TrEMBL record:
Name by which UniProt lists this protein: Alpha-amylase/branching enzyme C-terminal all beta domain-containing protein
Organism: Polarella glacialis (Dinoflagellate)
SUPFAM superfamilies on file: (Trans)glycosidases, Glycosyl hydrolase domain
Entries under InterPro entries matching the protein: A-amylase/branching_C, GH, Glyco_hydro_b
Residues in Alpha-amylase/branching enzyme C-terminal all beta domain copies: 196-284
């Protein structure tokens, strides 16, 4: 996730690594790797003398990232040493682009198979530096803020957690009515199908299988479609294939607001794409 989010140049963004990671997180029942912990920041990686917080790394640009295809990234601030001082947290907070890139990473973590993990402070986009092995301190002013970036990020985390766990937002969007296997959030299960990884745009379906689906062949009917635009470009009308359906509900947009929740996206029944008989057009920012 890290390089795909932080690298300033779209041509060096390797979606294949993301695809392999997503598929690898869903190895099937009984597999030793099932239920792996998924994160984009940890106390080992986000320290100021290592990779640094994602928003801070995006803010600093490409000073430490691979310059050629095949070249590996690395410990951002550790490699750069004094040539790349850790940025001021207030400057990072003022960088809307950096926050939005970090938000995309949050979406990937919370919609991937496995067990999502957030580092303390990540729920309010805290970019203050800390050094390993000490973890980040708690900024109570940010944690209790009622407006601005901290409050917006806290709400984003709440919405993503609710969608994943089948909370109020998840029940409304996915039409979940009880706790039976057929009423689980599609983001809780192992089902994942990445059907588009092109032009810097990643799209995949998520679903949860009922416990007896291996015997009956009946899958959880509710699907979640995740679309992530990792480029610097805006797409007014991006064309994507979808399974047979009449419409889709917009559950969450990192570029939108709460008023966009449950907005219907109409499906074209007459135009197939990406191996599906139907398709949609969506705006990607």
């Amino acid at each position: 996730i890290y390089d795909a989010l932080v690298h300033p140049l779209d041509e060096f963004r390797d979606l294949n690594r993301l695809v392999k990671g997503l598929i690898g997180l869903s190895p099937g029942r009984g597999h030793s790797l099932r239920g792996r912990v998924v994160f984009m920041e940890s106390h080992d990686t986000a320290a100021s003398d290592r990779y640094g917080r994602v928003a801070a790394a995006v803010h600093n640009g490409g000073s430490f990232m691979p310059k050629q295809a095949g070249e590996q990234g690395g410990d951002a601030f550790q490699k750069a040493g004094e040539a790349l001082p850790y940025p001021d947290a207030s400057a990072v907070e003022a960088n809307i682009f950096a926050a939005r890139r970090a938000a995309l990473g949050l979406v990937l973590v919370m919609t991937a198979p496995g067990v999502p993990m957030l580092l303390q402070g990540q729920e309010v986009c805290d970019s203050r530096p800390f050094k390993w092995p000490q973890g980040p301190g708690m900024d109570w002013e940010r944690a209790e803020a009622t407006h601005g970036q901290p409050a917006e990020w806290r709400q984003l985390c709440r919405d993503l957690i609710s969608l994943r766990s089948g909370g109020a937002a998840g029940r409304e969007v996915f039409g979940l009515h009880d706790a039976s296997p057929g009423s689980l959030s599609p983001l809780q299960g192992d089902g994942v199908h990445v059907f588009h990884a092109h032009d810097g745009v990643l799209a995949y379906l998520r679903w949860t299988e009922a416990e007896d689906s291996r015997k009956t062949g009946i899958l959880q009917p509710c699907l979640a479609l995740v679309i992530v635009n990792l480029t610097h470009r805006l797409f007014e009308s991006y064309h994507l294939g979808v399974p047979p359906s009449r419409s889709w509900k917009l559950a969450l947009s990192t570029a939108g607001s709460a008023t966009t929740c449950c907005t219907e996206v109409q499906v074209s029944q007459m135009r197939s794409a990406h191996g599906f008989p139907c398709s949609i057009h969506v705006a990607l920012q």
